[in-house]
Write a structure and sequence with these properties.
This protein is of the alpha+beta class and 137 residues long. Helices cover 19% and strands 39% of the residues. The protein folds into 2 domains: 69 residues, Roll (2,3-Dihydroxybiphenyl 1,2-Dioxygenase, domain 1); 62 residues, 2,3-Dihydroxybiphenyl 1,2-Dioxygenase, domain 1 (Roll).
Length: 137
C-alpha cells in the first residue's frame, strides 16, 4: 500500500487575504476553492508542480483557533518549502515582499533561510543538499 501526506490544515484569519498571500508572495497555485455554507470554504493551495503536501486554508472560527494562528510549532519553523533553485526563489520571494528573518546559510542538509508568513508562522525555504548545484548562500 502506498501512502502520502496529502494535505495539512493551515489556520488563517481571512480566506481571501490568505489566498492572495500564498498566490502572490509564494507563487502557489489555487487548487480548489469551494463554498461549504455558513461562511466556510474548502480552499486548497500548493506550490506549482504538484509535488508534496497541499495546504487546506482553514479560517479560525473561535478565540481558541484565532490564538493558534501562526503558532503551529510554538515559535519554531513549522513549514518547509523545498526548491530546486534556492537563489532564484529567494530573490523572487524577496522581490514579492516575503520577509526573510535571516540571511541564507549553508547547513549539512542544504541551503536554507527562515521567512515569516503574515500571521507570524515561520517557514524554511530549503534547497536540499542533494540539489545544491545552483544554490548559493
Amino acid at each position: 500500500m502506498t501512502k502520502s501526506l496529502a494535505a495539512v490544515a493551515f489556520l488563517v484569519p481571512d480566506y481571501d487575504d490568505a489566498v492572495a498571500w500564498f498566490r502572490g508572495a509564494l507563487g502557489f497555485d489555487l487548487i480548489e476553492d469551494a463554498p461549504l455554507g455558513a461562511d466556510r470554504r474548502w480552499i486548497v493551495v500548493a506550490p506549482p508542480g504538484g509535488a508534496g503536501a497541499r495546504l487546506v486554508l482553514a479560517r479560525a472560527a473561535d478565540a481558541r483557533q484565532r490564538a493558534a494562528i501562526g503558532a503551529a510549532a510554538g515559535g519554531r519553523v513549522a513549514y518547509f518549502l523545498e526548491t530546486d533553485d534556492f537563489a532564484r526563489d529567494h530573490a523572487a520571494m524577496s522581490a514579492r515582499g516575503v520577509r526573510f528573518l535571516e540571511s541564507p546559510r549553508r547547513e549539512a542538509y542544504g541551503v536554507v533561510a527562515v521567512f515569516a508568513d503574515p500571521w507570524g508562522g515561520r517557514w524554511d525555504l530549503l534547497q536540499p543538499a542533494t540539489r545544491q548545484a545552483t544554490a548559493t548562500p
